[in-house]
Specification:
Blueprint lengths: L15 E2 L21 E4 L2 E4 L4 H4 L1 E3 L2 E4 L2 E4 L3 E3 L3 E2 L11 E3 L5 E3 L6 E2 L2 E7 L12 E3 L6 E3 L8 E9 L5 E3 L3 E5 L8 E7 L4 E5 L4 E4 L1 E5 L3 E6 L10 E3 L4 E4 L8 E9 L2 E19 L4 E4 L4 E4 L1 E5 L3 E6 L2 E2 L7 E4 L2 E4 L8 E9 L2 E12 L1 E4 L8 E5 L4 E3 L4 E3 L3 E6 L2 E2 L6 E3 L5 E3 L8 E9 L2 E12 L3 E4 L4 E4 L4 E3 L2 E3 L7 E6 L2 E2 L9 E4 L6 E4 L8 E8 L4 E11 L6 E8 L4 E6 L8 E9 L7 E2 L1 E3 L3 E2 L4 E5 L6 E10 L13 E2 L10 E5 L6 E7 L12 E8 L6 E5 L6 E5 L8 E10 L2 E5 L3 E4 L10 E7 L5 E6 L10 E7 L9 E6 L4 E4 L7 E10 L2 E2 ...
Parallel strand pairs: 9-17, 19-26, 27-35, 37-45, 47-55
Antiparallel strand pairs: 1-7, 2-3, 4-7, 5-6, 8-11, 10-14, 12-15, 13-14, 15-16, 15-17, 18-21, 20-24, 22-25, 23-24, 25-26, 26-29, 28-33, 30-31, 30-34, 32-33, 34-35, 36-39, 38-43, 40-41, 40-44, 42-43, 44-45, 46-49, 48-53, 50-51, 50-54, 52-53, 54-55, 56-57, 57-62, 58-59, 58-61, 58-63, 60-62, 63-64, ...
GO cellular component, one term: axon
Keywords: Cell adhesion, Cell membrane, Disulfide bond, Glycoprotein, GPI-anchor, Immunoglobulin domain, Lipoprotein, Membrane, Repeat, Signal
Protein name: Contactin 3b
Length: 982
């Protein structure tokens, strides 16, 4: 349907249904949208408005036409759903029945089209009859079936018919159901009133619905089975107390005989029918577009499968072909046309159909007639061939019917010869070509419509020879190599080189980091840089010329460090050893000469080499025992292989494995102590690292005794991270020597003790406070404290401690200064100006400070002026710099100015004090100067002036000049100086 430029053709029709009829009849008509206001075309679409049942009902087909022919669309059926009223609305006759008897109430639906559904009203709307094992409404006939009438069934029954397409609904007249008075119906065996036909055709993938209902007393039970005994698949559903059997998506395996059985205790009855599988046609074989020359014969065949077996018909350009018609023969799905002529060209369709549907297959037949033409397949202007090769010259003119060909060399017509063959298809073949075969060749083609020719020149060249080949090479990873590939060839040939690596062409642009082709037109050498292990393999040099292809190859073996071993397994482990096994990795071209084992624990930084047995593991071993491990530590192991090239990549880590526990074998270190408070013996040590604790339940045993005694006192601590123990006893003499040792233990037992250390018990604080404490206010931020050294005391004095604070009503210490040794003076700095401080002195030792002296107070001096000297004037004569400035006047809250400090901050810091406002300085011509002036007072140094920068002077250019503190005048004054003065 999608032929060249064919118009789109489909229908926008309501409720399209597949048409089952076989072909258009003679009453078919052409729709002319131009003369029909209700029908118009949009592209290939037919749009019908104001639908009319009488005028528009029917079968529609569309024809698509272009210059190549016409094709007919599939058929579409347009039908209208409707539902008439019941013919008579008069009351229906009453149905008289005895209690216990079965009854059938007929619906008799009116004339209709479209799918219907049925229901019954009992007495009045909306009281509908409910279906159960005793009552059933057939959706095939609309009838109401009551298996056994009860007194409650007496009443009026109205049949309701609903059209599911239109939604219309009509009601019949009521049918009265009346009980007879001549007694009750006795029990009787089932009588099947509703059953399906003996043969039911079912289309593939359709939904099949079978009904079965029986009258009887007692009410019969309905069951279903397949006579073949095959159980129902899960898709089969039973509904309405088994009165309805539904099979969705019907397939061929669902076909067979189905039996409905109605049974009560008085007997049973059965009805059966066969479901046969039907399917609409589908193509097995279709024809394809075909181009043939005039006078040729056409044979097309199409085959379809379906059930029932489909029939076939053929159309040409939308019209049915009738057979026989002389040259045209039709037999089922085969079409043959003898001796084609131009009028046979067109569009052909094969139609396969059965009662379930029809399918179309379309193809184009082109009947061609033309003189020979070499426009699409001329001979090459220049054809090259190697001496001794076989030359094939093809003559392939386009001609309908096929042309007859002959060959000429120059002006001489060629005949069959010993080395020359003329094939039936027009090809000229020359075996074992020589230089004498070179020349101009012409193929001449002819048919009844004309003649054409094509000419080409044949050049015979000498064979190409490979003069230098690559050789098998071994190389170390990271090095570079050149694989040679050089040739000698005929100058008339175009030559190209390429290289393949392990069967894949090398892309020099993509892989340029490693591969480069070097050499000229007769050299295709391959340079490989920074060779990696992946570059090992077979390299093939490919030489292509106009007439032949050659190749030469070599194997490149790349040697590198071994690949990583694998499957490192801990076979057996103790408290200090682990037996390992592994599998070797690739040797990468060089045999493995040995292995190194590395280990890692939570306590190590990275991987570390471990000791093994044997000490040196050669390349043939795949097991070893690691020794010197710590007990009760989780280890991971890995193996590194080595060969003559170097160490390879490490293996994956083994599974984490913990060594067995054992008695501690490491004693605590750095045992010492001392200090503490009165009656205490303080013992300290460096805790044993976790990796050396050798098991759970780790702790320490502390043993101590007075110096000179034999018996040890022991104590235990169960906290592994503790490194301090304090023994308290009022009988311990102050600063008395003890021998101390510390050991370790865990759940397995006690380990070794450390070496014995001498530790002194706590001493008592000095018992006397320093006397004759004096202070001197040095500046606004500093106070000097002086005291008298203590005489010899029973307690040691290691130094003195000065505490100070501001508010005597709140003597919490503001600051504290300690000085070790026998010093008796200290400066306290960082204080606030004009502030009263209270100070006290105490002696101290390892037990702490002793009693404090009586507090005394001291006031810091007023702060220095917060203004710098200004209006600095200076004069420089030779190397003498004269400075003059305005005095700084102190405020009432500031300490008085006592003089000025002139300092140079370049090189060595020097300062000159003066109580005047002027000074003279002698400068060194080879030095740099940064000169600053500060006011001095009892409160300390004031703020510095803006600095004066003087760089190295050129003594030969020194002249007299003066300047103020102005930057502009200063720069002008220093114009004669080589270096800037800022």
């Amino acid at each position: 349907f999608d032929r060249h430029e064919a118009h789109e053709c489909f229908f926008l029709l309501t409720n399209l249904l597949s048409e089952k009829s076989s072909a258009l009849n003679c009453d078919s008509s052409i729709i002319d949208p131009g003369n029909d206001y209700r029908r118009h075309m949009s592209g290939g679409s037919l749009i019908i408005s104001d639908l009319d049942k009488d005028q528009d009902t029917g079968v529609y087909q569309c024809t698509a036409v272009n210059t190549w022919g016409a094709v007919l669309s599939r058929r579409a059926s347009l039908r209208f759903a409707y539902l008439d009223n019941f013919k008579s609305q008069a009351d229906r006759s009453a149905v008289h029945v005895r209690e216990g008897q079965g009854v059938v109430l007929l619906c008799g639906p009116p004339v209709n089209s479209g799918e219907l559904t049925y229901a019954w009203i009992f007495n009045e709307y909306p009281r509908f009859v409910q279906q159960d094992s005793r009552r059933f409404i057939s959706q095939e006939t609309g009838n109401l079936y009551v298996a056994k009438v009860e007194r409650s069934d007496v009443g009026n029954y109205t049949c309701v018919v609903n059209n599911t397409v239109t939604g219309d609904k009509v009601l019949s007249s009521p049918t009265p159901l009346v009980l007879r008075t001549d007694g009750v119906m006795g029990e009787y065996e089932p009588k099947i009133e509703v059953h399906f036909p003996e043969s039911v055709p079912a289309a593939k993938e359709s939904a099949v619905r079978l009904e079965c209902f029986a009258l009887g007393n007692p009410v019969p039970e309905i069951s279903w089975r397949r006579t073949s005994g095959v159980p129902f698949p899960s898709k089969v559903k039973m509904k309405n107390s088994n009165a309805v059997l539904e099979i969705p998506n019907f397939q061929q395996e669902d076909a067979g005989t189905y039996e409905c059985v109605a049974e009560n205790w008085r007997g049973k009855n059965a009805a059966r029918g066969r479901l046969s599988f039907h399917a609409k046609p589908h193509w097995l074989l279709t024809m394809v577009d075909t181009a043939l020359s005039v006078e040729a014969n056409l044979f097309w065949e199409c085959k379809a499968n379906g059930k029932p077996k489909p029939s076939y018909s053929w159309l040409k350009n939308g019209l049915f072909l009738l057979s026989p018609q002389g040259r045209i023969q039709i037999e089922n799905g085969a079409l043959s046309i003898a001796a084609l002529n131009l009028s046979d060209s067109g569009m052909y369709q094969c139609v396969a159909e059965n009662k379930h549907g029809f399918i179309y297959s379309s193809a184009q037949l082109m009947v061609l007639a033309s003189p020979p033409s070499f426009s699409k397949s001329p001979l090459k202007a220049l054809l090259k061939a190697r001496t001794g090769s076989e030359v094939t010259l093809e003559c392939k003119p386009e001609a309908w019917p096929p042309a007859i060909s002959l060959w000429k060399k120059g002006n001489e017509i060629l005949q069959r010869a010993e080395r020359m063959t003329l094939l039936p298809n027009g090809t000229l073949r020359i075996a074992n070509a020589t230089r004498q075969d070179a020349g101009s060749y012409t193929c001449v083609a002819k048919n009844q419509f004309g003649t054409a020719s094509t000419t080409g020149k044949l050049l015979i060249t000498e064979p190409t020879r490979i003069t230098m080949r690559p050789t098998n090479t071994e190389i170390i990873v990271g090095e570079s190599a050149v694989l040679p590939c050089q040739i000698a060839s005929d100058p008339a040939l175009d030559v190209s080189f390429s290289w393949a690596f392990n069967g894949q062409l090398i892309d020099f642009q993509r892989d340029g980091n490693h591969f480069e082709r070097v050499g000229g037109s007769v050299s295709g050498d391959l340079m490989i840089r920074n060779i990696q292990l992946s570059h090992g393999g077979k390299y093939v040099c490919l030489i292509d010329t106009d007439v032949e292809s050659l190749s030469t190859s070599a194997i490149l073996v790349v040697k590198g460090p071994p690949g990583p071993p694998d499957k490192v397994t801990v076979e057996e482990i103790t408290d200090s050893t682990a037996q390992l096994s592994w599998t070797p990795g690739r040797d990468n071209g060089s045999p493995i000469t040995g292995y190194i084992i590395q280990a890692r624990t939570p306590f190590t930084v990275g991987w570390q080499a471990v000791d093994t047995v044997p000490e040196v593991i050669n390349g043939n071993l795949l097991t070893a025992t690691v020794v010197g491990l710590n007990a009760w530590v989780e280890y991971e192991f890995r193996v590194v292989a080595r060969n003559t090239v170097g160490l390879g990549e490490p293996s994956p880590a083994s599974t984490k494995t913990r060594t067995e526990d054992s008695i501690p074998d490491t004693a605590p270190t750095d045992v010492g102590g001392g200090g503490g408070t009165k009656s205490e013996l303080v013992i300290t040590w460096e805790p044993v690292p976790e990796e050396l604790q050798n098991g759970d339940g780790f702790g320490y045993i502390i043993a101590f005794r007075p110096l000179g005694l034999v018996t040890w006192t022991r104590a235990a601590i169960s906290t592994p991270g503790i490194g301090r123990y304090v023994f308290r006893n009022d009988t311990i003499p102050a600063f008395s020597p003890f021998e101390v040792k510390v050991g370790a233990y865990n759940n397995r037992g006690e380990g070794p003790f450390s070496s014995i250390a001498t530790v002194y018990s706590a001493e008592e604080v000095p018992s006397v406070a320093p006397k004759r404490v004096r202070t001197r206010s040095v500046s606004a931020v500093q106070i000097e404290v002086i005291w008298e050294a203590l005489p010899a005391l029973p307690e040691r004095v290691l130094g003195y401690e000065v505490v100070y604070w501001e508010d005597d009503t709140k003597p919490d210490t503001v600051g504290k200064v300690r000085i070790s040794g026998n010093y008796t003076v200290v400066n306290i700095t960082g204080l606030k100006a004009s502030t009263v401080y209270y100070l006290s002195v105490a002696a101290f030792n390892t037990a702490g400070p002793g009693p404090q002296s009586v507090p005394i107070n001291s006031t810091t001096k007023e702060p220095p002026p917060d203004r710098a000297p200004h209006n600095i004037q200076w004069t420089m004569i030779g190397s003498t710099l004269s400075l003059h400035w305005d005095p700084v006047i102190a405020m009432e809250t500031e300490s008085k100015v006592t003089g000025y400090l002139v300092s140079n901050h370049y090189n060595d810091v020097t300062a000159l004090f003066t109580n005047k406002t002027a000074v003279e300085l002698t400068l060194n011509a080879n030095s740099n100067y940064l000169i600053q002036v500060k006011a001095m007072s009892e409160g300390g140094e004031g703020v510095g002036s803006e600095p004066i920068h003087i760089h190295k002077l050129n003594t030969a250019a020194l002249n007299s000049f003066s300047s103020s503190s102005s930057h502009q005048s200063m720069c002008q004054a220093l114009h004669a100086v080589n270096s800037s003065i800022l």
